[in-house]
Amino acid sequence: MKRIGFLSFGHWTPHPQSATRSASDVLLQSIELAEAVEALGGDGAYFRVHHFARQLASPFPLLAAVGAKTQRIEIGTGVIDMRYENPLYMAEDAGAADLISGGRLQLGISRGSPEQVVEGYRHFDHHPREGESDAQLARRHTARFLEVIDGQQFAQPNPRPMFPNPPGLLRIEPHSEGLRQRIWWGAGSRETAQWAAKEGLNLMSSTLLTEDAGLPFHQLQAEQIRLFHEAWRAAGHQWQPRTSVSRSIFPLVTDTDRSYFGLERGSSDQVGIIDGMRSTFGKTYAAEPEELVRQLAQDEAIAAADTLLLTVPNQLGVEYNAHVVEQVLAVGRELGWR
Questions:
Q1: Average pLDDT of 211-230?
Q2: CATH of residue 270
Q3: Which residues, 6+ apart, have CB-to-CB distance to 6 below 8 Å?
Q4: Which residues span the domain enclosing 241?
Q5: Percent of the chain topping pLDDT 70
């Protein structure tokens, strides 16, 4: 069985052809889409985080709202840029959102992608230390976040508190038991996937890898997953990790589908430069359902992962995106994923 959810980048633009013309539209429709996908039998609602952009930026109010409105599906991010985060405040938000949802939070974190502004994390008053890169800043914030969500007691209590304290040092509250094992690292390379495994983080891999090994994207990503599992076993963790991949998949069933995505039938992997790194971009899958079954059966990374996240064109509205997810779920049944 494979979990299938959606991943929304949460775009909005004040354009007459956009179904999301404001931040309010995106937030409310994100909740509605999560409810619709749960009703269809989907497994997850995930949201991208981008700062200084007309996209979703502050995930925890949205995650808490989705958690309160749904009963079963996982809720998560793909991914939170840890360069921007205060680890302790984030731990409080994550604990609260997880408790509201009944333990369904699956939190994807990472260094993040290229920013909308130059070194935007500095505007949030986060600065690399002397000799530290921004990637190292993200990992330092991550390490502290993981410590405190694990329930570490570290804060000296006030001897004359306003309210009585439990004995001993205090921890971040609210604490949500089990959340530590539901943190994912968005790994853009084979090396970072191995690092994530050593740190005890689940693996979240997208439609982009910041390396080019001369292999088809799905094979390079499948190798990343294999190396992750090898590193996990070597690390000796006592629990079973999860892995996810993201894909753009559009079954061409209606005339509307064909008008939107028919030209993507010939899509192929691409190699380009992002953030100064030679990178491999995965193709879009767009075809009639029978052809999609054939194509997706050959995708080695989807086969290797336990979770598939569908990148949805959120500006086309809730009804259309629910239709896309429903059709992919039908294809998944044909492939034995459901």
A1: 92
A2: 3.20.20.30
A3: 33, 37, 42, 44, 45, 46, 309, 310, 311, 312, 321, 325
A4: 3-334
A5: 99
